[in-house]
Design a protein that fits this description.
By secondary structure, the protein is of the alpha+beta class. Helices cover 24% and strands 31% of the residues. It has one domain (12-76, 83-118). The longest helix has 10 residues, at 16-25.
Length: 119
């Protein structure tokens, strides 16, 4: 199954890493936008200045969580109260089962190693 990769918009930027993970896990652009807009849970991201959001999926017998890590990018002259300039989608992944609440989101080792290269 081939899914179309997302196109960068004025206020939403997809990194190369996030596009690769979309292809790997079979996520569509609209599915990840839905996780971004209506998360069930919000945690601090692993990478500096990032936020990780989660939305449950799957079935009762086989639950999964869809995680999305993003970074809010503002222009240097803007203050915290100003409008968001751009949201940069850093990564996306599936977590089998339920992850612990209030702790750093679980990230697969291959994703962590690629994120360290990016930062």
């Amino acid at each position: 199954m081939f899914l179309a990769l997302p196109i960068n918009e004025k206020n939403l930027f997809w990194t190369r890493h996030s596009k690769e993970k979309m292809r790997q896990y079979g996520f569509s652009e609209n599915r990840l936008k839905r996780v971004l807009r209506r998360p069930e849970r919000k945690e601090e991201g692993v990478a500096p200045n990032t936020v990780a959001v989660m939305q449950g999926a799957g079935t009762k017998k086989h639950p999964i969580e869809i995680w999305l890590m993003y970074q809010v990018v503002r222009s240097k002259s803007d203050s915290k109260k100003s409008k968001i300039k751009q949201v940069r989608i850093v990564s996306a992944w599936k977590y089998p089962g339920k992850s612990p609440v209030g702790k750093m989101p679980p990230i697969p080792e291959d994703v962590l190693s690629e994120l360290e290269k990016l930062i």
